[in-house]
What we know:
Layout: H1 2-27, E1 37-43, E2 47-56, E3 64-74, E4 78-85, E5 92-94, E6 101-107, E7 114-120, E8 126-129, E9 134-136, E10 142-144, E11 149-150, E12 166-167, E13 172-174, E14 179-181, E15 184-187, E16 194-197, E17 200-202, E18 213-218, E19 220-222, H2 228-266
Antiparallel strand pairs: 1-4, 2-3, 5-19, 6-18, 7-8, 7-11, 7-15, 9-10, 12-13, 13-14, 16-17
Helix pairs in contact: 1-2
Keywords: Bacterial flagellum, Cell projection, Cilium, Flagellum
Family: Belongs to the flagella basal body rod proteins family.
GO biological process, one term: bacterial-type flagellum-dependent swarming motility
Amino acid sequence: MLRGFYTVASGMIAQQRYQEALSNNIANANTPGYKADRATFRAFPEMLMHEINAKQLPVKHGMKVPTNRPIGSLNTGVYIQEYVPYFNQGDIRETGIDTDLALIQENVPDENGSFFFAVQNEAGDIRLTRNGNFTVDGEGYLVTTKGYYVLDNNQNRIFTDGLDFTVTPDGQIETDTQVSQLDIRYVADAHILEKEGNDLYVGPTDAIPAHAAYHIQQGFLEESNVNALQTMTQMIEAYRMFETNQRVLKAYDESMGKAVNDIGRIG
């Protein structure tokens, strides 16, 4: 009986955390370049139940032989093992704003591979992002909307000195005085990256394969890959699963109450 309480409670906690992940996806449905989180469920170790008994042998002194018969497995609950971002390319939307850059993947040889912009956070560390919603700060540098510097292929900040610049499909930023090359990073397995907040990812990068291809489209943005309708449906399913576990927990509680108040009093 008590094991049932723990099993049902673990199911409720897992659905609650799943609901939180789905809510975060919905909240970022309009965030450029946002990658939806997927929750992976995992069961706690199962227990193999056995029937332990004794068999009476038809002999003179009535010898008994112990028996051990497998009944089946008993699951001890479920939990969310991790959240894995889904790095499928989002839809491309035209904005007409020159500082908006869409990083479009043409050929990715690895199943979970992905390209990223390299930016510099407030601590001076290099981070990755898919959000190309850039702007130019008061000093003339190309930055993200959170103020992180966009880097060139020499890991230097890109100075545009205003909004009058052109970005070529291969990632060159051309102004009246200089030409810079965007630092585009490649990760063969993007699932190993960790979300750091503010649309940033942290993790190791790989050399760009010779047959991999991408292009930059100025005046466009990659939208979030969150499917709002599907996510709302999943939220309803998670809520119903939570309610189901809640009803089972209530039934366990009523059974335990009868065992203590009724059966215990009779004894």
